[in-house]
Design brief:
This protein is mainly beta. It has a single domain, classed as Nucleoside Triphosphate Pyrophosphohydrolase (Alpha-Beta Complex), CATH 3.90.79. Helices cover 15% and strands 43% of the residues. The protein has two helices and seven strands. Strands 1, 2, 3, 4, 5, 6 and 7 form a seven-stranded mixed sheet that branches. It is globular, with a radius of gyration of 14 Å. The protein starts with 8 loop residues before the first strand and ends in a 6-residue tail after the last helix.
Length: 137
């Protein structure tokens, strides 16, 4: 069996809520290139999803968040890229700071969007959340 030693990776997507909007970044130089996605990344060894969310948001956007809560997950199979992720959705409330592009090799820009007016193209985990009827709360 060709994929017998492969296992899905675990990602964390952080849905930051500010004034009824969520923060999305335009991805670049990674899978999902040119698509819009929440801040996030790989869950590290012995790290909780909430710890991962805090770390990734600080590393990627440099803003402060609070009230983190795990919500759901998506099963994300990127056939064209031969990648498989389980992505944990964490919702957080915005506290302070202006989103900055702190990883310019991975993100083009950050913008706030209403959940009912999300931009396209969308990163696969976001598409899969929408199929579930997910709304950050």
């Amino acid at each position: 069996m060709e994929n017998e030693n492969k296992r899905p990776k675990v990602g964390v997507g952080v849905w930051i809520v500010k004034d009824g909007k969520v923060l999305l970044g335009k991805r670049k130089n990674a899978h999902g290139n040119e698509s819009w996605a929440a801040p996030g990344g790989h869950l590290e060894w012995f790290e909780s999803p909430e710890e991962c969310a805090l770390r990734e948001v600080a590393e990627e956007a440099g803003i402060e968040i609070v009230n983190l809560r795990s919500m759901t997950f998506t099963n994300d199979v990127f056939l064209d890229e031969d990648k498989h992720y389980i992505t944990l959705a964490v919702v957080a409330d915005y506290v302070s700071g202006e989103p900055q592009v702190l990883e310019p090799d991975k993100c083009e820009r950050w913008e706030w969007f209403s959940w009912d007016e999300l931009p396209e193209p969308r990163f696969l985990p976001l598409e899969n959340l929408l199929k579930q009827g997910f709304r950050p709360r």
